[in-house]
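Hi R.,

Here's the chain you asked about this morning:
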Amino acid sequence: MKPIRNSAKAVIIADNHILLTKNLDSDGYFYLYPGGGQEKGEELKDAVIRECLEETGCQVSVKDLLFIREYIGQNHEFAKWDSDIHQVEFYFECVMETQNASFAGDNPDADQVGVEWIALNQLDEIRVYPKGLTKHMQNNLKKPCYIGDSN
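And the predicted structure, written out as tokens:
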């Protein structure tokens, strides 16, 4: 079994829209919060800054920790591919420092095809992961909380 992995994610909201990475798989488009794995010796806030730059091409400033979520692969719909993954995800409120960004990240994820601003009230109409954060975003429930192994 693989070791538990930390992941730092960005929650970037402006004008009732949230910035997500747009990805494509055999089922069509899906969306993720920008961010990724923490490297050894790297603080979580530095990981989210690096990952945002890699995936969106934008510099961000990191604010408060909003959510902690666990992803235990064997409990989710993708279990046949990642059943041995256990990841702890830290979601931080972030603010874009770069204006008029081209969103040309220099190291996007393998399935990533772009980034997109999605209206908060339309989050439940798209395939976004984790789904469990949608109600928090739509109801402006931005306070530190542990949401466990949620979808």
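The chain has a mean pLDDT of 86.

Let me know if you need anything else.
M.
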